[in-house]
């Protein structure tokens, strides 16, 4: 068998495997969307959930998911940015930096349920924060830090050394070169990583079951005082997210339309994750075009 025929066979096998993966993904997404989208209405997206009666929605759970995502990124992004800059620009190749990278790899491979149990024992029990938004946000920060740190480090390493040398040759300090030259050049990759990690955090459930809780108190959207018990912004209240709500309905839901609510919530969750992933691609390309002034 000559080399050309081997190459064609190998290429066909690769295309076949890729096609199988795409087919499985399309079938999975298609089933969830076809089953769930007919139940998604404006009332379903905005009305509170119902524990016993039919007709409940996912309004509070949807708000809780976005609020937890915002707090998680607010905590994790500055830490990840600092760690990524250190590892990419300042860290020397020695045992300490190798230990840091191994720690990041180990942390990224931890199951989310382990992170949730850690958050439960430390924040809920030891620090007495209870089942609350802040406990969930801190737990998700541990879950999000490795992915975001590695993404920022890789984005910074992808910047050409010529740009660093150009900044230094103009008399800029190393810190100025990093903040004014390297980080802006790496911004498309950083933004893409932030949005992709946001999609991963948004769909997380296991870690939040043990930290943010499985209950969703009725929120008063007219009260935006963060220290009030029924305020949406109160970080010390329990918060059932959309992913946790889906899990709860499928395990112990007793409302008459549990299957319809679960299907509709699953469709909304899938759409949100797809938007995050497609948005990451669009945002990265848009920022790149703006920075490079290319069309």
Automatic annotation (TrEMBL):
CDD domains, from UniProt? TM_PBP2 (cd06261)
Source species, domain of life: Bacteria
Keywords assigned by UniProt, alphabetized: Cell membrane, Membrane, Transmembrane, Transmembrane helix, Transport
Gene Ontology MF annotations = phosphate transmembrane transporter activity
Q: Which residues form the ABC transmembrane type-1 domain?
A: 62-280
The record lists the membrane-crossing segments as 12-34, 66-88, 100-123, 129-148, 181-202, 261-280
Task: Supply the Gene3D superfamilies for this chain.
Answer: MetI-like
Question: GO cellular-component terms in the record?
Answer: plasma membrane
Per the record, membrane topology reads: Multi-pass membrane protein
Q: Name one GO biological process term.
A: phosphate ion transmembrane transport
> Where is the secretion signal located?
none
| Major location (coarse) | membrane
Keyword check for Transmembrane, yes or no: yes
| Location in or out of the cell | Cell membrane
What NCBIfam families does this protein's entry cite? 3a0107s02c
The record's comment on protein family reads:
Belongs to the binding-protein-dependent transport system permease family. CysTW subfamily.
Q: What is this protein called?
A: Phosphate transport system permease protein PstA
Q: Which organism is it from?
A: Pediococcus pentosaceus
> Lineage of this protein's species?
Bacteria, Bacillati, Bacillota, Bacilli, Lactobacillales
Instruction: Write the gene name.
Output: pstA
